[in-house]
TrEMBL record:
Organism annotation: Gigaspora rosea
Pfam families in UniProt: TPR_8 (PF13181)
Keyword list, A-Z: TPR repeat
Keyword Acyltransferase: no
Spans of repeat TPR: 42-75
InterPro entries for the chain: TPR-like_helical_dom_sf, TPR_rpt
Gene3D superfamilies per the UniProt record, alphabetical: Tetratricopeptide repeat domain
Domain of life: Eukaryota
Protein name, per record: Uncharacterized protein
Length: 115
């Protein structure tokens, strides 16, 4: 199985806007701190994980997405994002594992099939 990760696009996540507004800013820190107070809220965990991924804080993104997957093991978006984080961090076996788990849940997922 060959693995080609398709990076999230600016259209998908608004990366340029997020970086321009939040990277190294107090606003981002306040946002992340507020979400930390909702540690069992899967939507808050997803938002934190995605935000960390967008601004390049991959270890933090990995930790938050792993926490989310402990609560909701079949969360497709968490598997996608963590798969991408693993790929970026050159954890290729883990990235493939996340994609394989995603495809077990949603066999026709176009994003995972292309990756």
């Amino acid at each position: 199985m060959m693995l080609f990760m398709i990076a999230m696009t600016n259209d998908d996540i608004g990366k340029e806007l997020w970086e321009a507004c939040w990277i190294n800013s107090k606003t981002f820190d306040q946002y992340a701190d507020e979400l930390k107070n909702k540690s069992n809220d899967t939507l808050a965990l997803m938002s934190r994980g995605k935000a960390y991924l967008i601004i390049g804080k991959y270890e933090e993104a990995y930790a938050v997405l792993t926490e989310l997957l402990k609560i909701e093991s079949e969360n497709i978006m968490a598997l996608k994002y963590r798969g991408e984080v693993n790929y970026i961090m050159e954890r290729y076996k883990e990235s493939i594992s996340d994609l394989e788990n995603l495809l077990k849940i949603k066999p026709d997922d176009a994003w995972a099939e292309e990756a």
